[in-house]
Each structure stands twice: as C-alpha cells, then as structure tokens.
Design a protein that fits this description.
CATH superfamily: Cytidine Deaminase, domain 2
Largest sheet: 5 strands, mixed
Low-confidence stretches: none
Number of helices: 4
Number of domains: 1
CATH topology: Cytidine Deaminase, domain 2
Mean pLDDT: 97
CATH architecture: 3-Layer(aba) Sandwich
Distance between the termini: 32 Å
Radius of gyration: 14 Å
Bound molecules: tetrahydrodeoxyuridine
Strand content: 15-25%
Structural class: alpha+beta
Shape: globular
CATH class: Alpha Beta
Helix content: 25-40%
Length: 127
C-alpha cells in the first residue's frame, strides 16, 4: 500500500482514541504482509496504568485475527510534536519483527525508522 494512504488511515483512526485523561490522541495503522491493515488507538482508563497504547492495540487486533507477519507500522499523534513509541510497545513490536519499518508523524513532522533502530538488542526467548 502507498505510504501516504497508510498515513491517512492512521490519522483517521486517531479520532477514535479514548484519551480523556491525557488528551493525546494517537492512531496506528499496521499493514500486514497479506495486504490487510489493522488500525489501533490509545485506550485510557481511570486506573491509569491499564491504558493501552495505539501501537499495541493495532498489533493485538492483528494477532488475534491470525496475522503475525507485518510490513509496515504507521503511528500518528494529533500534536505538533513527534511521539515515538514507548518502551512497552517497542518490545511488543520486536516480538514479531526485528526489522519492521515504522513511520512516526505528527501535524508538523515525520520520521521514518525501524524497530531495530528503536530497540536494538531486544530481549527474545529462543523458541
Ligand atoms: N501512548 C500511545 O498510544 N503510544 C505510545 O507509544 C506512548 C503513549 C498513549 C498512552 C496514553 O493514552 C497517552 O499516549 C499519553 O501517555
């Protein structure tokens, strides 16, 4: 899928973010090798620590639908600042790929990176 199209999907998804506490609305779009796209948003909770990030929402949706091979992840935040994925999300991404291309964008900036750059020497069990 075209990069711009996937970015538009992530941005559109962000309107569904449930973020009454932080007001940070994030949207993710995860393209699978089979050509599907799974979106995700951050889902906050009154018990703050239970919040689920947009990236993990998208990954969990995909994995629960039988998809484990990913082509690209796009993350959008409705802000002028860029917000790269948190450590927990990096670890979850690295479970499924050690070279996944990742695009992070805001209303002002865009950065292209990959999971190996964001989380080198990640913890993996030899299975
Ligand atoms: N958040 C994400 O959705 N992804 C990240 O990688 C970092 C943080 C969300 C969680 C919370 O709803 C808000 O951003 C502020 O932490």
């Amino acid at each position: 899928m075209d990069k711009k199209e996937l970015m538009e999907i992530a941005k559109k998804a962000s309107v569904n973010a449930y973020a009454p506490f932080s007001n940070f609305k994030l949207g993710a779009a995860l393209e699978t090798e089979s050509g599907k796209v799974f979106t995700g948003v951050n889902v906050e909770n009154s018990s703050y620590g239970l919040t689920n990030c947009a990236e993990r929402t998208a990954i969990f949706k995909a994995v629960s639908e039988g998809e484990r091979k990913f082509k690209r992840l796009v993350i959008y935040v409705d802000s002028d600042k860029l917000f790269p994925p948190c450590g927990a999300c990096r670890q979850v991404i690295s479970e499924f790929s050690n070279d996944l291309p990742i695009i992070i964008f805001s209303n002002k900036d865009v950065v292209e990176t990959n999971i190996n750059e964001l989380l080198p020497m990640s913890f993996q069990l030899d299975t």
